[in-house]
Write a structure and sequence with these properties.
- This protein has 335 residues and is α/β, with parallel strands linked by helices.
- It has helices at 44-51, 119-123, 126-139, 162-173, 185-193, 223-233, 269-273, 280-293, 310-322, and strands at 2-6, 19-22, 32-42, 61-62, 67-74, 86-89, 102-106, 110-112, 153-157, 177-181, 198-200, 214-219, 234-242, 261-264, 301-307, 328-332.
- Strand 9, helix 4 and strand 10 form a beta-alpha-beta unit.
- It starts with a strand and ends with a strand.
- Belongs to the zinc-containing alcohol dehydrogenase family. Quinone oxidoreductase subfamily.
- Keywords: Cytoplasm, Metal-binding, NADP, Oxidoreductase, RNA-binding, Zinc.
- Homotetramer.
- Residues 16-331 form the Enoyl reductase (ER) domain.
Length: 335
Amino acid sequence: MKAVGFFESLPITDEKSLQDVEVEKPKAMGKDILVRVQAISVNPVDTKQRRGAPPAGSEPKILGWDVAGVIEEVGNDVELFSVGDKVFYAGSVTRQGGNSDYHLVDERIVGQKPESLDFAEAAALPLTTITAWEALFERMNLSIDPSANKGKSILIIGAAGGVGSIAVQLAKLAGLYVIGTASRKETANWAKDTGADKIISHYEAFRQQLEANVDYIFCLNNTDQHWENMGEVLAPQGHIVSIVEAVENQDLNVLKNKSASFSYEFMFTRSMFETDDMIEQYLLLNEVSKLVDEGKIHTTLTDRGGPINAENLRAAHEKIESGKTIGKIVLENDE
């Protein structure tokens, strides 16, 4: 089958950084389903993986952790899906990704595709939506019921990116007052369009831009850069969640007097460690699919990047690495 992979870590400007390859079509066994890939989305994790350690052995590493497609085959232990089902998911970073004609994935981290979206629109959602959902409703322990969050506020740092675009929508759905950060007019407008109540700059001190402290902070951009700013504007007993690893050793004591807490969100944790609650992502994605079909959540697709091939994926990676993308970039296989 056709796929796009890499054999060595190279700058995206090098034509060998991502290559069109032929690999063996996988077979579904156990709890795996084999999906005929219709569309994939590109995320920062793709670029980080490509720039990281090269694949071991002679097989290419295939990236791509946002997929929408149709089930071609099911393993003998599959209980949740049938051949022909239309699905969407993010997959597991410890396995081959979905930048290919067919892709194997564990059924417990897959959801039924929203009926109201085409494959490209659906492929824009899984990774970022799982990340935002887990951060808000599991790490922060928020309720999706707006009546439970009356008067509460959240600051989303990087509100116009892939995760930010869906986090704003989910936070508004949960009844929070949403403050987003943006650095350009177009990103500020996008964040407002997705539901942000107020926009501030993440290049200026937060304190002077906010009328009051915030109850929650979701950091999607440079934990090190924003650490002191976050500690200063977080309300007593507040909570910070970040998806960005800290390079420097940060002082947790800035949270002590406020009895505040900090946690990371990594949406691949369940699949990476095969936790007992892996099926929570199946349930999560199905709930999101329902909310999409009810018109309560909207796709964050902004860029249809053409067919899934090495040239188009290199262009998508270059856009992601620029740090200036808005929403999600999606590529599509032929029907």
